């Protein structure tokens, strides 16, 4: 008999420290989250088996460039700088940065009060870039997105800058702190592909449009963010 046709594999890189988008479910090695469900649904729609690859956030773009992964699905904001290195699919989620401080903080009411303060952020993120733009700030960068929260608790930093939906999820799930100031300018998450892989970008965009049309995207959205 003819050998079974091998299923096509789509290697999807992600940094699973970013709940509710990608994280490790408690007591399990399995990755879960909005992006994970979306990546699996897109893979299915495109006729691929999805293989998740756990990487540092700052390792995602290099892994795309070397061809170690096909796509990065990791709450990655579409930025002009990143567009020089990768190609983005259509935006799939609107986000924005926020400042988190300790519950008893009274002096810091927003980003303008961070001059000269110690700010924690994850390496390679838009939060780290924003923190670095604050005058005289001592920016401490961490490998994963949870370490800055722990450091805030431990008084190793005075504030954290991270994506608002991630900070909100942290607080709802028992994390300590309070958000101050407004959500900063809108950032749009996009799935990234190797620069020049127009065919894959087109495939993903078509699959994403199909999931939006058939209600699957809404189902996944409701599961993680409510109505
Ligand atoms: N959206 C932010 C960025 O693109 C943070 C992403 C993340 O930490 N996963 O830099």
From TrEMBL:
Q: Tell me where it resides.
A: Cell envelope
Lineage, top-rank taxon, reads Bacteria
Q: Which keywords are on file for this protein? A: Signal
Domain (Ionotropic glutamate receptor C-terminal) spans 9-227
Q: Which GO terms describe its cellular component?
A: cell envelope; membrane
UniProt KW Cell inner membrane keyword: no
Q: Where is the Solute-binding protein family 3/N-terminal domain?
A: 9-227
* Name the UniProt record assigns to this protein: Glutamine ABC transporter, periplasmic glutamine-binding protein GlnH
Q: Which species is listed as the source?
A: Parasutterella excrementihominis YIT 11859
């Amino acid at each position: 008999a003819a050998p079974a046709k091998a299923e096509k594999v789509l290697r999807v890189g992600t940094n699973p420290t970013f709940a509710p988008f990608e994280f490790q479910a408690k007591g399990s090695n399995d990755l879960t989250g909005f992006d994970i469900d979306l990546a699996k649904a897109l893979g299915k729609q495109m006729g691929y088996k999805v293989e998740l690859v756990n990487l540092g956030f700052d390792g995602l773009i290099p892994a795309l460039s070397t061809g170690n992964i096909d796509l990065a699905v990791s709450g990655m904001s579409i930025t002009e700088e990143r567009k020089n290195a990768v190609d983005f699919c259509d935006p799939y989620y609107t986000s924005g940065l926020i400042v988190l401080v300790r519950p008893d903080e009274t002096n810091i009411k927003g980003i303008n009060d961070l001059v000269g303060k110690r700010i924690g952020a994850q390496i390679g993120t838009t939060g780290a870039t924003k923190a670095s733009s604050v005058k005289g700030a001592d920016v401490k960068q961490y490998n994963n997105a949870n370490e800055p929260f722990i450091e805030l608790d431990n008084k190793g930093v005075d504030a954290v800058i991270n994506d608002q939906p991630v900070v909100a999820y942290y607080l709802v799930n028992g994390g300590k702190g309070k958000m101050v100031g407004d959500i900063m300018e809108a950032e749009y998450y996009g799935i990234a592909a190797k620069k020049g892989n127009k065919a894959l970008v087109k495939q993903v965009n078509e699959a994403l449009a199909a999931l939006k049309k058939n209600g699957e995207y809404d189902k996944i959205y409701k599961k993680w963010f409510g109505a």
